[in-house]
Write a structure and sequence with these properties.
Number of domains: 2
Number of strands: 25
Largest sheet: 16 strands, parallel
Number of helices: 1
Order of helices and strands: EEHEEEEEEEEEEEEEEEEEEEEEEE
Strand content: 25-35%
């Protein structure tokens, strides 16, 4: 199945304006540069959409996306333009290779007081306590898993600078009920683990950056909300899966995006981005892989990076791409906004659709 712009799914009675690959695009999957175009390209395709307006933002949407489709990411195929900068060499292998030590720390809001974090019965009450304990003594390329029980963890303590710092090698997992002995026993959909950037319900105190990544970090089964900026990840290898980022602000530095990524390998899978102010994901340099994700945003992505977007659903006014190469595989684009949908790609970029 090819990537499509689905005008029938535009639930507002407005034209879906498609500005797809304005300057350089290939549709044969072989990654040839589409060349430069010296003229502006505009499309005014009128599409009548008389379907009922539906404001339901439920992220459990039914799509025609085949999530089992093989994905050749832009780091290996499709993109052949020269890019300045880029991530340093990955010296430890895949970020999701699992811990190379038997390191696990436990977090549970329901314990009376923080213990040593070595079991559910003696769990820490805060995520940062577990991270600090797990990171202590880790050798280079070793990993430590943080198992976080269901509940809402408020991050603001006394200053907007409060953050959860994922130290090198830390893998943060949510979705536990507090009895599991194996990672596979958790259910991240039934036992929701939420990191909230406010001090408490109804508070106006809010953190500026909720998650700060360092290197070789994994976030899996976590919901992130209520922050000035959901995450900052720079200069490393990062994996985010089975998670949700919603209702976060845009105080991070690049193009007012809730999530800021720079100079690294970034892998997002099976993750939902919903109602983040001004847009969800801004990526400056490195390699981005997005697979089986859902975007319900005004602007889904702002990219200055080699990117592959595969098996994903984008309900958005679109994506902005500059100085980059993007490959689309088996995606659906549509819009429930009055802005239409499209991909706005500048003349210094390249696009491949497959």
């Amino acid at each position: 199945m090819k990537s499509v712009f689905d005008t029938n799914r535009a639930r507002t009675a407005i034209p879906v304006v498609v500005a797809l690959c304005l300057f350089a695009c290939e549709d044969d999957g072989h990654g040839r540069d589409g060349g430069d175009s010296g003229t502006d390209a505009e499309t005014d395709a009128d599409a009548d959409s008389d379907t009922d307006t539906d404001t339901d933002t439920d992220t459990d949407t039914d799509t025609d996306i085949d999530s089992d489709t093989d994905t050749d990411f832009a780091s290996d195929a499709g993109c052949n333009i020269e890019l300045d900068g880029g991530p340093e060499t990955d010296t430890c292998g895949e970020v999701d290779a699992g811990p190379s030590s038997e390191c696990v720390r436990y977090v549970d809001l329901d314990v009376a007081a923080s213990g040593d974090g070595l079991s559910w019965a003696t769990a820490f009450r805060t995520v940062q306590e577990a991270i600090d304990s797990g990171a202590e003594g880790l050798a280079p390329c070793e990993r430590c898993q943080i198992w976080t029980a269901e509940g809402i963890y408020y991050i603001y303590v006394d200053t907007p600078d409060n953050t959860i710092e994922l130290k090198p090698g830390i893998e943060l997992y949510g979705g536990f009920d507090g009895t599991e002995t194996l990672l596979d026993e958790r259910d991240w959909e039934a036992h929701v683990t939420t990191l909230n950037g406010y001090e408490y319900v109804g508070s106006e105190n809010q953190v500026t950056e909720l998650l700060t990544f360092t290197n070789y970090n994994t976030v899996d089964g976590i919901s992130v909300t209520g922050s000035g900026g959901a995450m900052r990840a720079e200069h490393g290898v990062f994996s985010i899966s089975n998670s949700r980022f919603y209702a976060n602000g845009s105080s991070l530095p690049w193009y007012d995006s809730a999530l800021f990524c720079n100079d690294g390998y970034f892998n997002f899978s099976n993750t939902t981005f919903d109602s983040n102010i001004d847009g969800s994901l801004g990526v400056v340099s490195g390699v981005l892989q997005v697979n089986n994700c859902v975007f319900n945003e005004e602007i889904a992505l702002r990219l200055l990076i080699r990117s592959t977007i595969a098996n994903s659903e984008i309900n958005s006014a679109g994506m902005n791409v500059s100085s980059s190469c993007i490959e689309l595989q088996n995606d659906i684009f549509y819009s429930e906004t009055p802005f239409g949908t499209g991909i706005f790609i500048k003349e210094d970029s390249s696009c491949v659709i497959s």
